[in-house]
């Protein structure tokens, strides 16, 4: 991932903010999340616009936002310049990135955006590097005495120091792509060479949770909401239920405390074994796909994001969200007469 694109703008004074305009980048299909922000704007009479950007003009979010812009790919040399131009044109106060590949670039260039009066809902560079490489995630857990499934080294694999079943996945993957259950030597040998950047780890069974954490710009936690994953599709939860599990909440507090420079929504995944042990498996420092369930349960992430963007510090925590709220997701369609590519 490129993090050092050259910006063609001179470093001038901060842009004056007359209203709160939020830009969601790589907005794609995140209709539910953006609608939650629109609801807060309406409920609290917040002035401003919800703007989306994507590489495609036919992204579903283009039809629910106030404005939609086409941006080049994140790896394009002009991406940063075009994004900053958009921010100036639309007087953007806050950018909320929605895919993993954007995060390192934004984290690296926080200061440039700050000079134009634009805040980024993005954690620090070190945290994004930890989250973007599952080997680094594993090392972070181990070095901070956080329980996690064992990842086998090349030497351990060579010496056959493991027991089946195993879990194999790309260390730089996302959305569960390439995640494969391994039950014998033949499968292990094949998938190690078939799946790029493969890592092999201990296979853990139990209830899988995604935990949404809200953190302000100073690292203060507002809330922690565990969601039991009942069913997933393409790596994203399609059925889930909120669980006010105090053992998970307390364990996640320890993880967040160890994270370097967490900001915004931090999504942490863990497995709770039958004996109650909690094993942490993944960190995603952005809004996860299942966040609408957390918001619906009463954890008002959109409002808190808006408040922290205006300088509010979270001095108190909130755990009044509803337990056992279930989400059952299904496809909806947007119909338009526009000619789209």
TrEMBL record:
Transmembrane segments: none annotated. Keywords: ATP-binding, Ligase, Nucleotide-binding. Residues 138-310 form the ATP-grasp domain. The keyword Nucleotide-binding applies. The keyword NADP does not apply. GO terms for molecular function: ATP binding; ligase activity; metal ion binding. It holds the Pfam family ATP-grasp_3. This is Transcriptional regulator. It comes from Oceanobacillus chungangensis.
């Amino acid at each position: 991932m490129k993090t050092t694109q050259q910006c063609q703008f001179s470093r001038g004074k901060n842009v004056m903010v007359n209203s709160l305009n939020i830009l969601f980048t790589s907005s794609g299909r995140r209709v539910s999340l953006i609608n939650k922000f629109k609801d807060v704007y309406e409920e609290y009479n917040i002035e401003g616009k919800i703007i989306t950007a994507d590489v495609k003009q036919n992204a579903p979010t283009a039809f629910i936002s106030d404005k939609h812009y086409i941006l080049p790919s994140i790896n394009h040399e002009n991406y940063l310049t075009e994004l900053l131009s958009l921010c100036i044109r639309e007087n953007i106060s806050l950018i909320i990135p929605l895919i993993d590949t954007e995060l390192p670039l934004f984290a690296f260039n926080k200061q440039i955006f700050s000079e134009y009066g634009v805040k980024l809902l993005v954690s620090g560079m070190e945290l994004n590097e930890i989250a973007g490489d599952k080997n680094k995630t594993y090392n972070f857990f181990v070095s901070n005495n956080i329980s996690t499934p064992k990842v086998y080294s090349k030497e351990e694999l060579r010496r056959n120091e493991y027991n089946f079943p195993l879990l194999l996945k790309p260390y730089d993957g996302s959305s569960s792509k390439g995640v494969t259950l391994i039950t014998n030597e033949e499968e292990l040998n094949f998938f190690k060479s078939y799946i790029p950047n493969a890592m092999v780890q201990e296979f853990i069974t139990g209830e899988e949770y995604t935990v949404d954490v809200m953190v302000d710009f100073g690292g203060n936690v507002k809330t922690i909401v565990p969601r039991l994953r009942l069913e997933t599709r393409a790596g994203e939860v399609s059925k889930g239920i909120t669980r006010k599990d105090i053992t998970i909440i307390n364990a996640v507090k320890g993880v967040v405390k160890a994270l370097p420079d967490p900001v915004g929504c931090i999504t942490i995944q863990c497995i709770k074994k039958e004996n109650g042990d909690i094993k942490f498996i993944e960190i995603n420092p952005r809004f996860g796909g299942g966040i609408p369930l957390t918001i619906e349960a009463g954890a008002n992430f959109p409002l808190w994001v808006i408040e922290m963007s205006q300088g509010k510090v979270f001095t108190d925590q909130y755990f009044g969200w509803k337990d056992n709220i279930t989400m059952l997701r299904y496809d909806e369609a947007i119909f338009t007469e526009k000619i789209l590519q």
